[in-house]
Amino acid sequence: MKNNTIQPGKLFFTSCLALIVTAMTFAIRAEIVKIWGNDFNLNGEQLGFIAGTAFWGFTLAQIVGGPLIDLLGMKKIIYIAFFGHIAGVIMTIMAWNFWSLFAGTLLIGIANGSVEATCNPLVATIFSTQKTKMLNRFHMWFPGGNVLGALIAYFMIEQLHMSWTALMCVLLVPTLLYGGLFFSLRFPQTERAASGISYSGMLKACIGPFFLFMVICMVLTASTELGTGQWISALLGQVGVPAILIFAFINGIMAIGRLFAGPVVHRLNPVGMLLFSSIFAALGLFWLSRASGYETFAAAGVFAVGVCYFWPTMLGFVSEYMPQTGALGLNIMGGAGMLSVAVILPFMGNWFDANKQKALVQGADQALAELQAGRDTLMTVAILPIILIVAFTFLYIRFRNKPKVVLAHNV
Fold first, then answer.
1. Cβ neighbours of residue 209 under 8 Å, at least 6 residues apart?
2. Which stretches are transmembrane (predicted)?
């Protein structure tokens, strides 16, 4: 029987389960993207476009879903997520060429974006006094789901030699679970609506110059974290250890870091966390571009510490210091982040292909050419966190002593 009371604990648990599904799609795609290249005769740029489609779909769902959250309610948007995951998995399994893979990946991307479009403002609403801490704790299940998906992918594909279609079917189980749980729960109003801030006031807050500055920073943080993650199999494919295990290692560290984000927030505050993260992300990418063998895990650990807090802390900062932007602000941030990854993935594929071709022309064999291409591409990506170090230093100087903005809720 449906319960008509708001149950924050159950809403948070189910939000985490939905985010696990979202994360597993990224991990599984990172493992099978090379298989798609062989099965469908696709080059690096084409694979980048397919992988990027998931991010385009994610962005579309957040940009469209963000304004609709307050008009239709959160629950209707989560319906889109559930049915999108089911349809996207089935379409991908049945794919026969580039465009069918493109369509299936797009549907999954829309579903993933709908999860975040709903759950980010939901968590900010039910934990309105602990936003950065609880958004980090919620988002620990993105790397947590990546670890789970990566390990399942490793054992099914590399150990048991099962088909990639069987691996995609695994996604249906947690999808059915979160769908069933969410449909039985009641959702609250968004924090913006409960506080009495007008819809037009929210729209005005979302076009302010400082909010737009944060959107640009989100573009760079997301590209650094997720662009690297989606190309990990190619970039680190020749370092002497399985790239999918490095992927799992990075995401395991990120999950632990986000779980214990509370003490870090207390010590550094959100702006200090962002500056700290950009420094470690840059150092990690430089080290990864030179590491080989088991040293790669150490370099990956530094990178993981760097990117660990980027996404949830960017959302937490906006929600705490610019709460008037409401659910729309959170979804613009998330949409901009995913859009940037959709843009950078084909570029990264192009950089990798060009760097590989350059190494082959210089006389390297296939394996050495791929190793050098990965290293050169990582060096290019490292420019992004260097820009962020400058941006977040400015942010830290401006906001280190500024109090958070707390909205008064109407009763």
1. none
2. 46-65, 77-99, 105-126, 138-157, 163-185, 205-223, 235-256, 268-288, 294-318, 330-352, 378-397
Neighbour-count burial for 289-310, b at 16+ CB within 10 Å, e otherwise: bebeeeebbebbbbbbbbbbbb
Instruction: Give me the amino acid identity at 299.
Output: A
Tell me the CATH number for domain 9-399: 1.20.1250.20
In angstroms, the Cα distances linking 251 to 143, 146, 225, 244, 261 are 4, 6, 11, 11, 15
Alpha helices in 154-260 (DSSP H): 164-169, 172-183, 191-194, 199-205, 209-222, 228-230, 232-235, 243-259
49 close to 102: Cβ distance less than 8 angstroms: yes
3-class secondary-structure state, position 350: helix
Token pair belonging to 178:
């979160």
In this prediction the pTM is: 0.81
- Ramachandran area for residue 380 (φ above 0: left; ψ -120 to 50: alpha; else beta): alpha
pLDDT, tens only, 283-311 = 999 999 999 999 999 999 999 999 999 99
Round to the nearest angstrom and report the end-to-end CA distance of the chain: 27
Class of residue 1 by CB neighbours under 10 A (exposed 0-12, middle 13-18, buried 19+):
exposed
Contacts of residue 113, Cβ cutoff 8 Å, sequence gap at least 6: 57, 58, 59, 60, 61, 62, 65, 334, 335, 338
Distances (CA, A) of 95 to 23, 92, 167: 21, 5, 14
| Structure token pair of residue 221 | 């943080």
293: left (phi over 0), alpha (psi -120 to 50) or beta: left
